[in-house]
Amino acid sequence: MIRKEINKISEVGKALISVEGNPGVALNHVVELINANDNRSISFAKAINISEDNTTFQVFSGTQGLTTRTRIRMHEVPLTVGFSENMLGRSFDGIGNVADDGPEVIYKKQLSTRLDTLNPTVRLVPKQPMWTGVPMIDVFNTLVKSQKIPIFAGPTEPYNKLLSQIAKGAQADVIIFAGIGLKFDEYQYFKDELSSSGNMDKTIMFTHLAGESQIKGLMLPDVALSVAREFADQGKDVLVLLTDMTNWSNILRNVANYQDMIPSLQGYPGSLYSELAKRYEVAADVEGAGSITIIGATTLESLEDPVPDNTGYITEGQFFLEGGKLKLARSLSRLKQQVNGKTRSDHRPIMTVMASLLADAEKAHEAAEVGAANDAFSQKLLRYRADFISNIEEPFGDPIDLNDALDMCWDVLRKHFEPTETGLSQKLIDEYWNK
Fold first, then answer.
1. Is 27 exposed, middle or buried (CB count within 10 Å of its CB: 0-12, 13-18, 19+)?
2. Which CATH superfamily is domain 80-337 in?
3. Positive or negative CA dihedral for 41, 47, 51, 54?
4. Residues in contact with 319: Cβ distance below 8 Å, sequence separation at least 6, in sequence order
5. What local confidence, expressed as pLDDT, does residue 2 receive?
6. Where are the beta strands (DSSP E) in 84-217?
């Protein structure tokens, strides 16, 4: 993969370096910058302008520490990542190097990390569920294979714990965890949880720890998604868990500032939407192959922040984590109707009825705060609301399959209401009320 090295940098600027002539690259070729004294890798750069006299490279992490003696190492284009089924159960860094204490991996092939746009004619209409073992997802906002959906959460919410919970119960052939800017204890938590669940042998972890090179964090989603695409090409159903896409976007912003790009809102580059979309659009169910489903944790202070705002236009709904609970009123899977009409006969009705009762319960809760809602039915609604939040919206615990989750919903209804108060059909009442 490494072709040659050159040492003839003619100019070093704030974010750009120049080389006389053309050293043998094309636009967007990626090169590695090597310290001339100790052969240490310093950064990566991309060819952005080529003429007969001069080639200009954009340095990903700024030019501090670079000199005209810095060597340029030529790579195949784009950068590649090794692939092998032996990667399952292992941990790697943001550019695909082994990052655990295991042996080196013997790769079968090298994969492009360019993430070329998939031909839309080979995409299938999403129509198969991706069960997670989390009732609030499986019953109320069913995840669909090839869906792309974020978890919106405040910075202090347990969004990484939720991703771990999903990974433990997900019925996927391969799970790829991609963590950007993780603390070491977060990385270790994921590894321990997946190991205890028995899912580690079908999981690959790509991790960028806080304090590590920003370029590794920037490249990590592309590396992880390239590996995911290869497994999908082999017919596997792959679930990719990205966290935290706000961390990744912040690195993107830093790199754009190094490169003197004109900033947009809150300093993010104007290309933020297209950069996020490029990664999320890898999600697909491909004719004659497998599927890639993407869940990306996105931390926020406000939904109007640039990262969640752009993400909402790209993805197909959202899971909203608030107070440690998956909130029904703020969550939405826009593809759930593709699959939840083909499950148990009570799935759609009980989803609809419980959501309607919760909406009524929220109104009763608001009335109770000003001393109203004292009638008997309002009191039932308030007790139902407390039960729903404590048990149904609670995402953590042992994974629960769909039928057991639906039975749990019936238990909650029976606990607080009479059959005639639910609005469910008599046929469903006869079949499930006393089950």
1. exposed
2. P-loop containing nucleotide triphosphate hydrolases (3.40.50.300)
3. negative
4. 137, 141, 149, 150, 151, 152, 162, 295, 326, 331
5. 47
6. 91-92, 109-112, 148-153, 174-182, 203-209
Residue with tokens 């302008």, as numbered in its chain: 49
Tell the CATH topology of 2-75. Elongation Factor Tu (Ef-tu); domain 3 (2.40.30)
* β-strand partners of 297: 151
Please state the pTM of the whole predicted model.
0.89
Nearest partner of 399 among 153, 172, 88, judged by Cα? 172
Beta bridge partners of 237: 291
Helix (H) or strand (E) holding 239: strand 237-243
Collect all residues with Cβ–Cβ distance below 8 Å to 295 and sequence separation of at least 6: 143, 149, 150, 151, 163, 166, 239, 240, 241, 242, 319
CB 292 within 8 A of CB 232: yes
Query: Mean pLDDT, to the nearest integer, of 360-370?
Result: 93
Q: Identify which of 70, 165, 123 has the alpha carbon closest to the alpha carbon of residue 400.
A: 165
On the question of a common fold for 2-75 and 80-337, the answer reads: no
Tell me how far the alpha carbon of residue 410 is from its chain's centroid: 32
Pairing mode, strands 80-83 and 203-209? unpaired
Spell out the residues 6+ positions from residue 169 whose beta carbon is closer than 8 angstroms to its own. Answer: 131, 132, 133, 134, 197, 399, 400
Q: Which of 212, 238, 209, 237 shows the shortest CA–CA distance to 224?
A: 238
Q: Which residues contact 162 (CB under 8 A, 6 or more apart)?
A: 134, 151, 153, 297, 319, 321, 326, 395, 396
Task: Report d(CA 91, CA 204) in Å as an integer.
Answer: 6
Pairing mode of beta strands 291-299, 284-285: antiparallel
Q: What is the pLDDT of residues 105-155, one digit of tens each?
A: 999 999 988 888 888 888 899 999 999 999 999 999 999 999 999 999 999
Q: Peptide bond before 244: cis, by omega within 30 degrees of 0?
A: yes
Residues 47 and 33: their CA atoms lie apart, in Å, by 13
- Kindly give, in sequence order, each residue whose CB lies less than 8 Å from that of residue 314, ignoring residues fewer than 6 positions away: 148, 273, 276, 277, 280, 281
Cβ-contact 180, 208 below 8 angstroms: yes
What is the residue extent of each domain of the chain?
2-75, 80-337, 347-432
